[in-house]
């Protein structure tokens, strides 16, 4: 179980990925995003999660360069993730999309590259492209996002390399127990997006009561629950005080009873699209 912000989980290919990072979903290009990422790096974050679809890879790259100059933290010490968008899911298209992301980010390689959504009939070819990039040592690790069990099974029928990570919507209202168990048996690390359910859980009475017992915020309790469930977590924030607060989750441990109470909030409720029923 991680005890420090820079603790890492070992993916099935031996690559070490931070348990905790910052996500930048829906944050526009520009100074606010650059400052947020620089603040995160300054306060000990080493993992940054973006995607082609977020339209902000250039600002992420700028922040990495400026942070490196100001703090001396090398590129090799950071773990950068991006994702290929649905329009680019095809063998040649995915190879080109990877180059485009690298160019926007101003990087020579990514630590992790994910297929963003399981578009039926398209993700197998995209995965073949990710495997090639991986074999050519252009990416440290490859994975998927929003894949259900049947998507993973479909992928693995033709894949030479298993995904190293599956990043999915994951929070106390959507605990994804079956998917999590399946990923564990397959050696696929699970990651959480929208861990705070876009703020919808912050006034939940059960979570407020648990948080009060530990002198922590509801957000900190949820993020701690993620980590104790061995789920990589990337909460989004652009505010420095919140970036600091989100990462202040390594000095306490939830009891098994409290973990179970939080599990009990599950309603299989999504704030994002359903991976079995999306049209983009």
Automatic annotation (TrEMBL):
Residues 31-267 form the NADP-dependent oxidoreductase domain. Belongs to the aldo/keto reductase family. The gene is ytbE. Keywords: Oxidoreductase. The active site is at 54 (proton donor). SUPFAM superfamilies: NAD(P)-linked oxidoreductase. Pfam families: Aldo_ket_red (PF00248). InterPro entries: AKR (IPR020471), AKR5G (IPR044500), Aldo/ket_reductase_CS (IPR018170), NAD(P)_OxRdtase_dom_sf (IPR036812), NADP_OxRdtase_dom (IPR023210). This is Putative oxidoreductase YtbE. GO terms for molecular function: oxidoreductase activity. The record marks 83 as: Lowers pKa of active site Tyr. Substrate binds at residue 116. CDD domains: AKR_AKR5G1-3. It comes from the Bacteria.
């Amino acid at each position: 179980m991680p005890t420090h912000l820079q603790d890492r989980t070992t993916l099935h290919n031996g690559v070490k990925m931070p348990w905790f990072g910052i996500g930048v979903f829906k944050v526009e290009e520009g100074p606010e995003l650059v400052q947020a990422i620089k603040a995160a790096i300054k306060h000990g974050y080493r993992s940054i999660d973006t995607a082609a679809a977020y339209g902000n890879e250039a600002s992420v790259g700028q922040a990495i360069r400026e942070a490196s100059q100001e703090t001396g933290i090398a590129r090799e010490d950071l773990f950068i993730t991006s994702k290929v968008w649905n329009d680019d899911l095809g063998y040649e298209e995915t190879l080109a999309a990877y180059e485009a992301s690298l160019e926007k980010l101003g990087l020579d390689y990514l630590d992790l590259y994910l297929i963003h959504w399981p578009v039926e009939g398209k993700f197998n070819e995209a995965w073949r492209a990710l495997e090639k990039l991986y074999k050519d040592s252009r990416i440290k690790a490859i994975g998927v996002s929003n894949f259900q069990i049947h998507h993973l099974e479909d992928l693995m029928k033709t894949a030479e390399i298993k995904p190293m990570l599956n990043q999915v919507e994951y929070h106390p209202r959507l605990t994804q127990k079956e998917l999590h168990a399946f990923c564990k048996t397959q050696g696929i690390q699970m990651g959480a997006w929208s861990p705070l359910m876009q703020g919808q859980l912050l006034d939940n009475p059960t979570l407020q009561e648990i948080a009060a017992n530990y002198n922590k915020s509801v957000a900190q309790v949820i993020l701690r629950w993620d980590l104790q469930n061995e789920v990589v977590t990337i909460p989004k924030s652009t505010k420095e005080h919140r970036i600091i607060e989100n990462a202040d989750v390594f000095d306490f441990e939830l009891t098994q009873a409290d973990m179970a109470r939080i599990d009990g909030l599950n309603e299989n409720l999504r704030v994002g699209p359903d991976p079995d029923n999306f049209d983009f």
